[in-house]
Amino acid sequence: MNIDQLQIKIGERIRILRESRGITQQDLAAACNFEKANMSRIETGRTNPTVSTLYKISQALEITIDELVDVEVAN
């Protein structure tokens, strides 16, 4: 798995967790003090989020950062 694929998987995970909680992308972005466009880029894997960004998202979703980045990594 390359970095682009990992970014996409983490973005998908964030979207799934957000939707499972009934939170809009706009609301999650606001809770993290991000622009909605930035959240969109993260969820679609078009940007490489920093650890602090992932931490803010995990806090807003009330989960650990481990749960946030728990994606299947294929070789």
UniProtKB/TrEMBL annotation:
Oxidoreductase listed as a keyword: no
Gene Ontology CC: cytosol
Entry keyword annotation includes DNA-binding: yes
Pfam families: HTH_3
Any one Gene Ontology molecular-function term assigned to this protein's record: DNA-binding transcription factor activity
Domain HTH cro/C1-type: 14-68
Signal peptide: none
Keywords assigned: DNA-binding
UniProt xrefs under SUPFAM superfamilies: lambda repressor-like DNA-binding domains (SSF47413)
Name of protein: Helix-turn-helix transcriptional regulator
Organism whose genome encodes this protein: Draconibacterium aestuarii
